[in-house]
């Protein structure tokens, strides 16, 4: 089997090479991982043309940026334990431009085989109102739309935030994720930390801000926040905003990361480095250039030595 296929199969079946799930339940010391979002192949040109409703005609820039991100991540030492892409993998809505998906996969094949890729579904991957068919298409292309995994004593949940945003066209799938999530949050051996990955942020700055295209609706948000607080979730990582934002409230860190691809604010194309220590989860957004030329900052490297 080709190495490129192997990367995606591993993600699909959630079996990380060389790691058995049992071994990953144990804390063995600090580690880092990469959180990135919105490569969204096709948006940069569409945004410049002022035509974001189309699927985008060109995506060579995003392919180049994704390759740059992969190279920057590959050269980090110690190696990140995994890289999670928090949704909007491509710009075209489901079924409209298969080539974007193929080109993203090709751009990601350079990822070092020791760094598993974890995929999260975004609104552009599933449609703003997902249907059983678009969810199935996503799962066939990228793996399950929600699942959990352990890494180094940390419990990670990947969620389909589109089912929170608008599950009206697939009520059974929405319900199934709710039931599963309840189960995941309640019964498990005590992890060092619990982390959540989803595309749409719960909020951008404050838990009580108004509804917006870029956050989850207040009632949905509050319900999730209550459950996450109760379960002791440490941080929720997201994208969708194409700007860095977020904030820590009541011990829960809502992290909103800018994009590998199109920037809608003043941030640069980049990825977030997350350092997990026994007591804390520390993260920092790096521009691709900064990460390529300078690697990790000294203080983060120190944390990883502890
Ligand atoms: Zn999005």
TrEMBL record:
EC class: hydrolase
A GO MF term: protein serine/threonine phosphatase activity
Segments passing through the bilayer: none
InterPro entries for the chain: Calcineurin-like_PHP, Metallo-depent_PP-like, MPP_CSTP1, STPP_CPPED1
Gene3D superfamilies hit by this protein: 3.60.21.10
Cofactors, names only: a divalent metal cation
One protein family per Pfam: Metallophos
Residue stretches making up the Calcineurin-like phosphoesterase domain: 70-243
CDD domains listed in its UniProt record: MPP_CSTP1 (cd07395)
E.C. number(s) listed in UniProt: 3.1.3.16
Catalytic reaction annotation: O-phospho-L-seryl-[protein] + H2O = L-seryl-[protein] + phosphate; O-phospho-L-threonyl-[protein] + H2O = L-threonyl-[protein] + phosphate
Localization (cell): Cytoplasm
Main location: cytoplasm
Domain of life (superkingdom): Eukaryota
Keywords carried by this UniProt record: Cytoplasm, Hydrolase, Metal-binding
GO cellular component: cytoplasm
Family to which this protein belongs: Belongs to the metallophosphoesterase superfamily. CPPED1 family.
Protein name: Serine/threonine-protein phosphatase CPPED1
């Amino acid at each position: 089997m080709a190495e490129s296929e192997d990367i995606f199969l591993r993600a699909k079946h959630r079996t990380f090479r060389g790691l058995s799930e049992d071994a990953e339940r144990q804390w063995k010391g600090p580690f880092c991982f990469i959180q990135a979002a919105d490569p969204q192949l096709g948006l940069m040109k569409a945004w410049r043309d002022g035509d974001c409703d189309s699927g985008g005609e060109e995506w060579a820039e995003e392919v180049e940026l994704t390759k740059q991100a992969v190279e920057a991540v590959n050269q980090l030492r110690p190696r990140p334990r995994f890289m999670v892409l928090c949704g909007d993998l491509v710009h075209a809505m489901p079924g409209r431009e298969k080539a974007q998906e193929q080109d993203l996969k090709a751009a990601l094949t350079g990822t070092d085989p020791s760094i598993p890729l974890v995929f999260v579904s975004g609104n552009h991957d599933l449609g703003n109102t997902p249907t059983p068919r678009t969810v199935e298409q996503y799962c066939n292309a990228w793996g399950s739309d929600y699942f959990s995994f352990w890494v180094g004593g940390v419990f990670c949940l990947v969620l389909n935030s589109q089912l929170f945003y608008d599950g009206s066209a697939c009520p059974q799938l929405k319900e199934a994720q709710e039931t599963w999530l309840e189960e995941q949050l309640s019964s498990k051996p005590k992890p060092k930390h619990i982390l959540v990955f989803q595309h749409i942020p719960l909020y951008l700055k404050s838990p009580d801000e108004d509804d917006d295209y870029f956050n989850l609706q207040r009632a949905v948000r509050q319900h999730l926040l209550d459950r996450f607080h109760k379960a002791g979730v440490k941080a929720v990582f997201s994208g969708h905003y194409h700007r860095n934002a977020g904030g820590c409230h009541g011990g829960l860190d809502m992290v909103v990361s800018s994009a590998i691809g199109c920037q809608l604010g003043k941030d640069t194309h980049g990825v977030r480095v997350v350092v997990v220590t026994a007591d804390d989860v520390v993260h920092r957004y790096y521009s691709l250039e900064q990460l390529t030329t300078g690697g990790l900052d000294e203080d983060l490297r120190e944390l990883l030595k502890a």
